[in-house]
Amino acid sequence: MVSIPAVDYLSLGYSALERGDHQEAVNIFRRAQEKKRSARSFVGLGRAYQGLGDLPTARWAFYQALEIDPADPDANAWAEKIGRLSVPSPSTGRRTCRFRAHKDFLEVQGKKGWRRFFIKAINLGLGLPGYFPGEYPVCKGTYLAWFRQMGELGVNSLRIYTIHPPGFYDALAEYNSQGGRLFLFQGIWLELPEDNDFRGEKYTSYVRRQIREAVDAVSGNADFPERPGLPHGAYRSDVTPWLAGYVVGREWESCAVRAFNDSRGRVAERYDGRFLEMEEGPPFEVWAAETCDFVQSYGDERYGANHPVTITNWPTLDPLEHPSESTYGEGLRWQGYQIAMDTCNEDEDVETFDPAKIRSKRGAGFFASYHVYPYYPDFLNNDYLNHKSPYLDYLRELKRHHGSQPVVIAEFGVPSSREITHWQRDGWHHGGHDEEAQGRVNGLMMESIRNADMAGGMLFSWFDEWFKRNWVFLPYELPAERNPFWFNLQDAEQNYGVVAAYPGYPSMKTTLGGKREEWRDAALVYSKEGGPLHRFGDGADGARTLTRLSAQHDEGFFYLCLETAAPVDFSRAHYLVGLDPPGSSTGELTLPFGCGVESPIGLSFVVHLAGEGKSRILVTRHYDKYLNEGTKKVRPRPSILGEWVPMQNITNHRRISKDQKHYYPSRVFSMSGLRFGSLDRRASDFNSLADVHVSGSMIELRIPWGLLNVTDPSSRHVLWMEGEKKTRVTEGIGIVACSYKPSGVGLLATATGRSSNLTDALPAGFAASGARSYAWEEWNHPLYHTFLKKSFTMYREILARIPE
């Protein structure tokens, strides 16, 4: 095992306080307490919360310090400084409503009367690194900083999915009262009923409680006790002067809607409420209208004001017909599969929820809202394959159906993830975009929303959230409960933000910029003096001579730096880095490309460095997830066959049209190709998805943990599927490296005339006794820092061109 330099987390935490990075400091001091609980760590934690404006938690931390050391002067001073906390009494007076849903748009009331505005909004989540959203980790100081940045971005609104902590509303009131302009769309989160009965007594009580609590919170008139998974505290900031509307619910699943409509015989009914009405609709649509009506009725009864309201919808339940989308069962039967249909499949075009039927009788009005991404469901591609602008044409069709009713696209966007997880015809994929492409595509979508005469759009999302999981990688992010503790650049769902939440503090571990100082604290795996194993005497022996191999890691990546005696020249030198993440040494021994040698340890992966467009990472056949998914047996096995394969993932399954006349092929993308570039944002070759950088005699590598089948680096779990077992804990990653002279025949090595075609190797002589591995300490509180992606700047320019 190689030794890894220890980190002084206490000093790092106090450095964060000096920099004003209070939210990041919380995790750093928590990390310090994983090592040792001390008065100094709790004082630092208290100061972090005090800087964030969370005085109750700060006070708690200072008293924790005093429990450890009653005489600690800093703890006593800070506890006395905060003193006793008082909470003002709630106000129950009338509230303000300055917004209404009118013809085609929402309108805001000003000094000169009603004025329509085009919604330029951003969606804001809760899942900071290290936390699930239900832990509510974001504090007032962070919200206030974010609101200022949102003002710089040029959004006029933000949407939240549920009630946030009191600090959110305090910060919003402070920001807008001091000259800011940020309207709020308050979400009312609703889980699905367990029995699919939206009319059940227990579910109805739950829905109405969620609504009352949301209306009370935005009105500054709520006191919530501590409850698992729910916000708590005293809500005293009335933000109704900036409340543009309520957004009820979530993306409703078709199986739940179908089951409810079926249970009620699909009998069409009329709804005539206090504020909303609907001439006739199936049971779920009636329930939706009634729920939205209750939102407005409660606000009016309690506070004398009601606000615009909508309920979430998405293309899966849209009122349009999609001829390219057969059901899951029909598609399989047509391909000759015999399937049992005793369970409901989440089909994308079998159930309809049509909010165009809901009309306003009085009050602030109703508007429709849809989450519309360009790559999902598949019919958003397949229905429009011959169209010039598939996304725009779908939006126009949707708007035509709704007529003059305002329609808001409440979610849209593309992620800046390494991998593509759903294909789109024009390259607007679910993932696979660098930051610049993310900004460009997001801008094109917002322009499409405006050109389709929608009432506005809400970009998803503000910042990257580590807890999220995409269906492609979900089976391989284990243990699932530890997902917020590490960052997966591969996973599209974790990379939607225009603000990056990136591993490490105060900056990246390495910028892939050829800076030796960034490797000063790295572990030295191998160091070798002297010449290579074999000389060709062609002037490139120095490029093929390996001198050092260093390794380091953070919460998102495993980093390697391979150094050579002379500048790297891929035309005359190729390199292989063998890796064994399970640390079992039970993998493949035979190296590829005609090297004619066995590795001193069993390997699971080989990184082949051969220049731009040729470099890639390969996996042993038995450890490849794509090839072995159906076998439920994914683990390395002893082999001397040299069965190395590229890694792939399937993004779209084969589809068949409703009339069974058209097939739409599956889509598969490679994950193995390595991108060259730098993470230095000032560099000419900057690429936020860069894997490799070459500078002189240095080759730097940034490898996402998931690409090495590490399922949770924070607990050192790696993929090991066999029977009921899915993972195992590794003791460390085995590492070897070698070089060879490319022959020019494909990627094969030039023969040396010796027993091996290697030109050099680490460990020296490729001796098993010299092979080393890299181990790291586990963690429960990740370190991270934030920065504005390039997509932020690009999207800001687009928003500035779109009039309100």
Automatic annotation (TrEMBL):
InterPro entries, per database record: GH, TPR-like_helical_dom_sf, TPR_rpt
SMART domains named among the record's database cross-references: TPR
The keyword Lipid biosynthesis is annotated on this UniProt entry: no
Keyword Acetylation: no
Gene3D superfamilies recorded: Glycosidases, Tetratricopeptide repeat domain
TPR repeats: 39-72
Alphabetical UniProt keywords: TPR repeat
Name of the protein in question: Tetratricopeptide repeat protein
Annotated organism of origin: Geobacter pickeringii
Organism classification: Bacteria, Pseudomonadati, Thermodesulfobacteriota, Desulfuromonadia, Geobacterales
